[in-house]
């Protein structure tokens, strides 16, 4: 049974103090090697997203690391879709606009893409249905002696929810590896829908894979990067997710997360911020209004356990009236018509962690 340390927002104590309590109680603060680098993996938010992890919370984590003699830096990867995070330059500008600069967080900000040195990690064990053979991860993320994975727990249209596992499996890998996972979730054109031939999907497609023929979209599959832009831009809902594809994506996600951890040789800890629990991920702008009250902060050495605890805590938190008709269990998964536990069950089968946990209040 894994340990999940939990600081509740129900009390009167400052969340910044609560973060320190979590690191101290878990003993991870004492594991930070003096004088060595510590990577802090997080999503710094799409431009216009206001629900991502607040810089003041990240600064506290940085201060804890520095107090123990570690040398922290923030790190994330570029996105696989057009937007304010599609390149290093754009992401660094977006991070700065969202408050992630060295002056505010007391640590450098590093963004990686496929031009950086990558390490290939094979998928040594696969569950039936997963054809993913390998993933690639930036060496900048794998080399530090400590890795702290900070995750904002929220809904996600494809995975049901996003937490530590998604931060690992999708957030830590190369663009090529992101596409290899999203391949199983490529939108399809629903002929039965009433397409008005507006061409917005073709205009928005970043690779021009979609063209209009007789006022109907046609896609060159070889040019598709599986970013889902056609789905999100279509005003008529003609591009849909294939049945079962959300669960298949989660299957791949669980394998990728397991591979990332297997390729990392240092100490790793996971911190989930269970607050601003909105329907959509930090990639979305806007990402919607919170559906339940803020919960607190969790810390664990087990990514499966911390995600399961986060989902359970969300299910126990009061629903904000008028935000959702979904009921526990798995409120976020039901909102997105999938089972959020698929990614957890996959990771558990791969021995990445366990869904059995003990919640330890701090």
Topology overview:
Blueprint: E1 2-8, H1 15-26, E2 37-41, H2 55-67, E3 71-77, H3 88-97, H4 102-105, E4 108-112, E5 118-122, E6 134-138, H5 139-142, E7 146-152, E8 154-156, E9 160-162, H6 164-169, H7 175-182, E10 188-189, H8 200-204, E11 210-213, E12 216-219, H9 229-233, E13 239-240, H10 245-263, E14 267-274, E15 296-300, H11 303-316, H12 331-335, H13 341-349, E16 357-361
Parallel strand pairs: 1-16, 2-3, 2-7, 3-4, 7-14
Antiparallel strand pairs: 1-15, 5-6, 8-9, 10-13, 11-12, 14-15
Helix pairs in contact: 1-2, 10-13, 11-13
Instruction: Evaluate the radius of gyration.
Output: 20 Å
Number of DSSP strands? Answer: 16
Mean pLDDT across all residues, rounded?
Answer: 97
Q: Find the CATH superfamily of the largest domain.
A: LarA, N-terminal domain
Report on this model:
The chain is an alpha/beta fold and 362 residues long. It has 2 domains: 2-182 and 245-361, LarA, N-terminal domain (Rossmann fold); 187-240, Alpha-Beta Plaits, CATH 3.30.70. The chain has helices at 15-26, 55-67, 88-97, 102-105, 139-142, 164-169, 175-182, 200-204, 229-233, 245-263, 303-316, 331-335, 341-349, and strands at residues 2-8, 37-41, 71-77, 108-112, 118-122, 134-138, 146-152, 154-156, 160-162, 188-189, 210-213, 216-219, 239-240, 267-274, 296-300, 357-361. The strands form 5 sheets. Strands 4-3-2-7-14-15-1-16 form an 8-stranded mixed beta sheet, with helices on both faces. A hairpin with a 2-residue loop joins strand 11 and strand 12. The relative contact order is 0.19. The mean pLDDT is 97.
